Fold these 4 entries.
Entry 1:
Amino acid sequence: MPETDTTTSAASAAPALSAEDAKLVTLARSARARVGAAEGAAVRDQDGRTYAAATVALPSLAVTALQLAVASAASAGATLIEAAAVVTEAESLEEAGHAAVRDLAPASPIHVAGPTGALRGTVTA
């Protein structure tokens, strides 16, 4: 699994997100809560459009929330992911979603947050 950078200063609980990136966390939380999924994710493309998704776990189809959000963006014509966010109970970012984002964004931030929306860290590699 990709390392989630959780480096923070003693003075703050977590690094502050820009308003646009905080919106991604909010959208991801909402997507997760709407269907009670294991994860929710949201991405922002080169035009500022956002796409949110939840994990799909069917007998014949399994897609992570981040994979589905990236697929939604790509199917709408996105050629670059500016930023992404995942809301999960897992301690780190899952590999399949990480790879999907990297297909369209070699170094854009992927913010990993817990179910409350508290930022756990950001993956940039």
Entry 2:
Amino acid sequence: MRLLAVIVVLLTAGPLAASAAESTGTGVQLSDPVGTGAVLELVLGLVAVIALILLLAWAVKRVNLLPGQRSGMQVVAVLPLGQRERAVLVQVGEKQLLLGVGASQVTLLERFETPVIEPKRGPDGVFSKRLQDVMRQRGSITSPRSEPDA
């Protein structure tokens, strides 16, 4: 309760002192808080803070301080299979791993000793065609059925 009283006194003392100083003419004159100088100072401060944030982000990316940046793993291709499921081909050293990624688990589907797709060289669609070919060879999937015309 005392804290509330102190806050009320402090909040009301400032305007009362300013009005008393104006009436006597001996008070300190306050500058306009929304003047050009104040706005310019505010804008320059914001620009400096944003520039500092961008500089630090660039430095962190350049120095590779983020975990996992030099792990030797690379996602080669991703094939969506459903709403939350996808097949992901990951390059680890000289091997490639085909992973099934679901909402709650990751499953190793196949391990390739030789690269199936060269990283960042294959055009879009090559992964899905190659995946279907490999799965057909292993007997995992059957060829698409032809629907009889009605």
Entry 3:
Amino acid sequence: MFAEIQADPSRCLLLTTHQLDEAEAVCDRISIMVNGEIVCLGSAGHLSRKFGNHYQIDLNATAREHVGVIRNWFTNKYPRAVPG
């Protein structure tokens, strides 16, 4: 099926996944969406070169006093992490 779709440049197939390795296996271009908006688009190689050398972790604390505790834990566990 993928070969038939790829053989005709007027065809397009939209796949959704949370697994980048699945997208890399079958897609020429990959987009990443955040809150319903495309924030980056490119080949798997392009996205890996541009964004693949770091992680971003977003945390939501239920109480303000938890923020310091969480930040201290991350700083101790991952000393090279850069807090935002």
Entry 4:
Amino acid sequence: MYYAGYPEEMRSFINANPGLRSRFPQSNFIQLPDYSNEELIKIAEQIAAENDYILTEESKIELHHRLDMERVDDTFGNARTVRNIILDAIFKKGSEISVQDRDILQFTLLNKDDFVVDKKKMSESATDQLNRLIGLDSLKEEMKSLATFVSMQQFRRKKDCQPFQYSCIQFLQATLVLEKRRLPKYMPSCFENVEF
């Protein structure tokens, strides 16, 4: 029997049940490294080919950039992420090209533009993205409070005032809440205009 998943989550899963822990000792754990971008692009080519599409050289370069953007935290899904990107590009292409008076080649080539992330989505701040999520009201309020507190600390420093003494426990608590909810990518971005 095999179990696969993110390392920390799998340790928690195994440790949560003493019966499992005795059947799956640590010596049986295998840590698999993430694929390199070059390997992921080969996987992308294979997924595209399985769907009767071909990646242009320019699209491979853009896909490489896109993979770098996607690797923000431990939730990066390797081949799963690539599969989702390729399928999104295929759907995007299908929704943008008119069938009338088009060459079939237009429908089989995935170009650079098919992998460019929506500029509106990119320009949206992490705080706005977090606020668009349903629920999580207490988390949203905590993030707003922490950002305001840090901004005030910066303001006091710039005015040569003594900043309030505080510990990083609040920041640690917010990070743990975000990690638990698998939202760690919002944490650093909510503080991107804040100097520590």
